[in-house]
Write a structure and sequence with these properties.
This protein is an all-alpha fold. Helices cover about 70% and strands about 0% of the residues. The protein starts with 9 loop residues before the first helix and ends in an 8-residue tail after the last helix.
């Protein structure tokens, strides 16, 4: 600009700062503001718009430390306005610093600045995402008390919060209030409620809201289709899910990778392996490159249908991550092919990955199933040496292996080790031990475990009669 005989003013510089921030180039935006500050007013001084643009850039990038630095810088030359406070609050909420967000909200009021709908919505969304619905609702009530108009974003945040908590009645009530306030629900609102009902296993109400959505003349987008198909599959309604996929294709929408994988997984779980494989081929035909989730689904599904060698064909070492390795290792262990498991563990290390507890637990389970307890316990030692902590499943697997061999002293030692490590047993491991003690005729040990289950709240109160019945009428449990 100086070449053409004019000097840039603060508006020009603010446009430059905003442009850099929109492009995600926060460093360049900061340098522009710093050049303004360094000129000591010779060029022009940064104003509140300069700082707000920069704070907005920090917010999008979740750069919390930079916010704190430039807060101090800004306060030396200008005071924050509503936009400033709202941006700070948004940044704090996105960073999980809800107390700082609320503190800024109160500071704003002390500065005689009135929070607007954006300010309230940022806070409400932050508290809803953190699961603290009561604070979110109190803010919502405050908005209503000061007669502030809520928008679709505010209502969506509240409805999503209720749905995530499984409080579907409150979600419906908020939806009704939204309609009463003449705020038109959008696709995201409906999709959120539909997903909430599916997550609660309530397919009927999910489909009721789908009908409402369609009656509003809304077209389903790829996100909505994904939620509906996943929900139907998760609730055992594969036929209906298949019909939705067909409807989607008639609408000239191509299912995405997630939908294809969801359908493949559902077909496998229902025993329809051919349909699952056809869905995979359809994915290829539509020009998709199978990702690690799709390939892992194929390996797991085909292997569980007893065709391990066909499953291995889908293993891609270039794409393999810990999930794919775990799926294949689990399948190989169930088949008893421990030589191949050992080879895969070497490949994992070569790929720069670290074997996790799930891989080890699958291997231990396979060895225990074969009765090879020596190698199973060697693996347990190896796990510990590599800094991996055994979980409930790993301990239960070892206890099962020992109990199956009648080694009840050793099984009890592993059980006690598990307790000492701070892991709470579930009813399955108790049942396993009780049955094993009963089988060897040790009714006293079995009844002790039954009473321990009661103390832990895993069974209802156990009477002498119940104990006698459970333990073969051979011991008094009082």
């Amino acid at each position: 600009m100086p070449r053409f005989g004019c000097e840039p003013d603060v508006i020009s510089y603010n446009s430059l700062i905003d442009g850099h921030c929109r492009n995600g180039d926060i460093r360049s935006a900061s340098l522009v503001l710093e050049s303004l500050r360094a000129s000591h007013g010779f060029i022009c001084k940064p104003d509140i718009v300069s700082f707000n643009s920069l704070f907005n850039g920090f917010s999008k990038m979740k750069m919390l430390d930079e916010v704190f630095v430039y807060m101090g810088v800004m306060l030396k030359c200008c005071s924050p306005n509503v936009v400033t406070y709202s941006t700070w609050i948004d940044t704090f909420c996105k960073s999980g610093e809800l107390q700082l967000a609320l503190k800024s909200f109160h500071s704003m009021k002390r500065d005689a600045l009135s929070p607007n709908v954006v300010t309230f919505t940022c806070l409400i969304d932050g508290y809803c995402k953190a699961g603290d619905l009561e604070v979110a609702v109190s803010l919502y009530k405050e908005m209503r008390r000061v007669r502030m108009s809520l928008n679709v974003v505010t209502y969506t945040a509240l409805i999503d919060g209720f749905c995530k908590k499984g409080e579907m009645q409150r979600a419906e009530e908020m939806y009704s209030r939204m309609v009463e306030d003449r705020v038109e629900p959008n696709s995201l609102v409906y999709t959120t409620i539909i997903d909430g009902f599916f997550q609660r296993g309530d397919s009927d109400n999910a489909m009721k809201f789908l009908a409402k959505m369609l009656n509003q003349g809304m077209r389903l987008d790829i996100t909505a289709y994904g939620v509906i198909i996943s929900g139907l599959c998760g609730n055992g309604k594969l036929k209906e899910a298949t019909e939705i996929v067909e409807d989607m294709e008639k609408s000239d929408l191509v299912p995405d990778m997630v939908i294809f994988t969801t359908m493949m997984n559902a077909y496998f779980k229902s025993g329809r392996m051919k349909a699952a494989v056809n869905m995979y081929h359809k994915l290829i035909e539509r020009g998709f490159e199978p990702d690690v989730v799709a390939l892992s689904t194929m390996i797991d599904g085909i292997a569980k249908n007893g065709q391990l060698h066909e499953a291995i064909v889908y293993f891609c070492i270039e794409k393999a991550n810990d999930v794919m390795y775990t799926v294949l290792i689990d399948a190989l262990c169930k088949e008893g092919d421990f030589i191949e498991v050992e080879r895969l563990f070497s490949k994992i290390s070569e790929a720069g990955l670290v074997p996790d507890k799930f891989m080890y637990t699958s291997w231990i389970a396979g060895l225990c199933k074969q009765g090879n307890l020596v190698d199973a316990f060697k693996l347990k030692t190896r796990m510990v040496q590599e800094g991996l902590l055994l979980d409930l499943l790993a301990y239960t697997t070892l206890i099962y292996g020992l109990a199956s061999k009648g080694l009840m002293v050793e099984a009890r030692q592993v059980f006690d080790e598990m307790l000492n490590s701070g892991i709470s047993p579930d009813s399955a491991v108790f049942d396993l031990l009780i049955r094993a003690y009963e089988k060897e005729g040790n009714m006293a040990a079995a009844s002790d475990l039954l009473l321990d289950m009661q103390r832990r709240g895993l069974v209802t109160a156990v009477s002498d009669a119940d104990c006698s019945k459970q333990c073969g009428n051979e011991v008094n449990c009082s």
